[in-house]
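Incident log, support desk, overnight shift.

02:14 A customer reports that sequence design results differ from what the structure should imply. Their input is reproduced verbatim below. On-call engineer (initials T.W.) acknowledged and began investigating.
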């Protein structure tokens, strides 16, 4: 049994707004007794205190901790908060780092406290970290018999760490990612480390699937509904609002702008969420031109910004929301990137429909602070019977069930677990979460193969470039940025990760590569000489040493991000 309480108290004492959260203390008591826990607590309850507590404990006891996130935006937001915590506690800043695409502050996840994406965590765990994957690929396809990199060191870096995985619900939406979660639990268990999963939304069916596949690991679920914080519930129950669900029958952007105009005088803290980047950019431009509202208080946020511009967006959000007062005013237009972990609130919340899990997470940005009243407006577009995905993003069946529940139930308290759990359990049934035992076994065995990382590469290729995601993420550079005199360092500042499915739609014709000229390494642009639609060939190409990024036809600005021009 370990003692986390002193570190928990240190985190609480560092907070500007000190408010006792008894359920978090209850979680800490469980974490002291059991190595594997799954924590479910409402959005806005402060679950990040748990990961900070584990990090401080590990640091003080000469151990390592890895905090993993499904989204880069969430990681960057939390990295800022972790650094502020260490600064307040007079702990050296070089003891914390981050590792994800385009940022190598903690190579091999080696820093005592490392924040990373789940993608990088999985690759490092299986011995093919981003730093070494090209070497492993060359060995695997027979083009090199030289060094395979630090694959044993890479694996050990994870296996000797306590791991916290935040917003775990985002990794339960596909069989591939769920297979990895179960394998991760088994691998960590076999090496005697600690593992904590956290989320606001754990449907009963997901809990059942985890229990069935880890029955020998003594996994404990720590649920808010079983030990509720009555003061918190009382605060949430006293908030007044109504929820409107509407099927769009006309040009949606005009209708959404009308909603905004009708309500913005009464509710000055507005968040509008779209399911696609294109819709978010179009509506942002519309608001800037047609909405009577301070222009510097209208902010756009999505996934297609450079790292520096994403960080500046987060800082801007912190600036306009720092007072956490009812008199604050802003209109934030975003995609799904805002729905998990970003500490922001609103009293007017307008959102496109999403599956129950995501919808509840989004609504965690509504009346999050001390606002007493507000309004929620949800819209959806018609789905035909044979459509499998809504807007190419979410499974249509989940969308249909979410809409059906909201239409039949009407208004519900979206901040109280006992109420929104009804929605979760209605939408997610026995077919929603599927685990493939063979895949779990294959993944679980990889860290035990000491000779080479060849099996990891084979599985990586078989899974089309990710142990987690259905869609490979590839580096891209907007065509409007490219110049002949750009250095590699400068190009890396402008890299934007884009899903492979989008790359196939865009169909880029050019790429940036590293080549040798006059005994010097230079970056240059060249024509792509293979079919982008071939995911395996694209994966091999992206992992090669000379590849830097695809050139994507489109304009880029720090205000709008990347606006893609699709090939005709």
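02:41 Re-run completed on a clean worker. Output:
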């Amino acid at each position: 049994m370990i003692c986390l309480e002193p570190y928990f108290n240190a985190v609480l004492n560092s907070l500007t707004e000190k408010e006792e959260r008894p359920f978090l203390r209850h979680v800490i008591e469980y974490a002291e007794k059991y190595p594997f826990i799954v924590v479910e607590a409402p959005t806005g309850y402060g679950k990040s205190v748990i990961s900070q507590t584990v990090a401080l404990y590990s640091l003080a006891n000469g151990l390592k901790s890895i905090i993993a996130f499904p989204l880069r935006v969430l990681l960057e937001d939390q990295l800022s908060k972790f650094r502020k915590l260490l600064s307040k506690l007079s702990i050296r800043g070089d003891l914390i780092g981050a590792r994800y695409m385009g940022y190598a502050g903690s190579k091999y996840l080696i820093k005592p406290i490392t924040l990373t994406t789940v993608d990088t965590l999985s690759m490092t765990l299986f011995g093919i970290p981003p730093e070494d994957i090209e070497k492993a690929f060359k060995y695997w396809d027979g083009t090199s018999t030289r060094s395979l990199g630090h694959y044993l060191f890479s694996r050990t870096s994870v296996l000797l760490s306590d791991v916290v995985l935040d917003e775990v619900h985002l990794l339960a939406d596909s069989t591939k990612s769920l297979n990895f979660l179960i394998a991760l639990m088994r691998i960590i268990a076999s090496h005697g480390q600690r593992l904590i999963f956290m989320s606001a939304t754990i449907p009963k069916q997901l809990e059942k699937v985890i229990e069935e596949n880890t029955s020998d690991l003594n996994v404990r679920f720590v649920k808010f509904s079983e030990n509720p914080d009555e003061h918190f519930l009382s605060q949430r129950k006293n908030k007044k609002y109504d929820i409107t669900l509407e099927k769009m029958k006309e040009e949606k952007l005009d209708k959404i702008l009308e909603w905004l105009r009708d309500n913005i005088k009464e509710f000055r803290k507005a968040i509008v969420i779209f399911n696609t980047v294109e819709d978010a950019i179009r509506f942002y431009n519309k608001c800037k031109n047609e909405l009577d509202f301070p222009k510097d208080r209208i902010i756009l946020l999505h996934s297609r910004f450079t790292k520096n511009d994403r960080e500046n967006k987060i800082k801007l959000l912190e600036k306009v929301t720092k007072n956490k007062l009812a008199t604050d005013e802003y209109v934030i237009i975003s995609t799904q990137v805002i729905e998990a972990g970003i500490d922001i609130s609103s009293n007017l919340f307008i959102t496109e429909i999403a599956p129950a899990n995501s919808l509840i997470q989004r609504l965690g940005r509504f009346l999050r602070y001390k606002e007493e009243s507000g309004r929620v407006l949800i819209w959806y577009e018609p789905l035909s019977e044979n459509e499998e995905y809504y807007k190419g993003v979410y499974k249509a069946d989940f969308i249909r069930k979410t809409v059906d529940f909201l239409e039949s139930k009407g208004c519900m308290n979206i901040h109280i677990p006992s109420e929104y759990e009804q929605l979760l359990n209605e939408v997610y049934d026995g077919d929603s979460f599927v685990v493939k035992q063979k895949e779990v076994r294959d993944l679980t065995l990889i860290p035990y193969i000491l000779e080479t990382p060849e099996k990891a590469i084979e599985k990586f290729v078989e899974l089309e470039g990710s142990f987690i995601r259905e869609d490979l993420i590839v580096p891209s550079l907007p065509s409007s940025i490219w110049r002949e005199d750009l250095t590699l360092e400068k190009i890396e500042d402008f890299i934007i990760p884009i899903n492979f499915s989008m790359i196939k739609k865009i169909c880029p014709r050019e790429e940036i590569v590293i080549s040798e000229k006059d005994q010097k390494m230079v970056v240059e642009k060249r024509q792509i000489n293979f079919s982008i639609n071939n995911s395996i060939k694209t994966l091999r190409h992206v992992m090669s040493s000379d590849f830097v990024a695809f050139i994507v036809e489109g304009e880029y600005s720090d205000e709008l991000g990347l606006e893609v021009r699709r090939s005709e």
